[in-house]
Here is the input.
Amino acid sequence: MKPSIKGAWPAAAGSRGRGVIVAIDVARVRADTPGCENVLHLNNAGASLSPRAVVERVKAHLDLEAAMGGYEAADSAAEESERVYRSIAGMLGCAAEEIALVESATRAWDAAFYALAERFEPGDKILTAANEYVSNYLAFLQVARKRGVDIVVVPSEEGGEISLTALEAAIDQHGQRVKLIALTHVPSNGGLVQPAAAVGRIARGNRVPFLLDACQSAGQMPLDVEELGCDMLSATGRKYLRGPRGTGFLYVRRSLVEQLEPTPLDMRSATWTARDQYKVRKDARRFETWESSLACRLGLGVAVEYARAVGLEDIAERVTMLAERLRGELAGIAGVTVRDLPGDGSRKRCGIVTFTHERHAAHAIFERMRERRINVRVTPVGSTRIDMEERGLTEMVRASVHYYNTEGELGRFARAIRDL
Ligand SMILES: *Cc1c(COP(=O)(O)O)cnc(C)c1O
Here is the structure.
């Protein structure tokens, strides 16, 4: 009843010469991915195709619940369920006690943000960047309205990344009023990778809590919370990690956990110790809720182990290579403008490729691709409003690649765009 991916993964072939990546066995990962047979999937920033082992793990636990009862099935999977925390902690370079499992990246981010916001006072400042994700920004707006705090959008460099000089200047200017730096590592709308580790050094140097939205970078590149210098990090399971929908996790640095009381509480996060008393858990699981889909969590655990077995360095390298290749192909098509930052490709961009077409609206392209079983997505102004408005964009086509995509697929996609 407990399929494991042990033995399901061949040791990385290892050698890698002149930009030719042989470390990922693409045929093998495609064979592990049932969806590859049906669709040309370039919506990995939305939800990736899961490996078979992930789907099987979820199904097996649902079957077990049906066969023996949900609580009883949970009891029997208790040890594996603990391992999920250790897998995620291993991927992030932190302790299992610093991880909370929740149902989405947004809920993870919210849990940290709203707990911090309890302490905000009128005039306090939240520093963020132009590419901040919609749901995070909605939370800023709500807290700004309720608590009288100010949102400071730190200006970007020419290439789109947050200006570190401007960030330091903002901290100097506002001093003790700066209560949070919140950054989206990789925006949902393009190839930009924010210099999160440099932001983390500034945050630490100034003792400002740093909340990193790693929703698009988790599973796409190596993440180490020490190197990143973040105090809190949120991510989802279904995007580059290839886990099931309805999964997400939050990292909170040990030294901060007990300073943050979650709202709301439940019997997972706290204990009712006397009629008029409660005690909040000491670890990051204070941010969890009692009820959850254990099947999906176990699936997430398999997805994380799968990603680590493939190797996050190798994944990042291949994804970057494929994305640059796709940008090159698209740029050669009349009417197409690639929109990823930095626009001159002077710095490393990730797997999210965005573009517009002179004659075809993004949603029209989406429809045409769908007819051909090519999955892309429209990224609208409302998902990253500040960045999109600054660049005068209302919508773009987003084609996000993963390591299981092939050069052949990208060629097919580029031809489909050329044929519009
Ligand atoms: C998708 C996304 C989120 C939200 O993730 P959910 O799991 O849907 O809550 C947050 N931040 C970024 C940058 C995203 O792309």
Q: What stands out?
A: Residues 63-306 form a domain with the Aspartate Aminotransferase; domain 2 fold (CATH 3.40.640.10). Residues 1-19 have pLDDT under 50 and may be disordered. Residues 312-331 form the longest helix (20 residues). The chain has 15 helices and 15 strands.
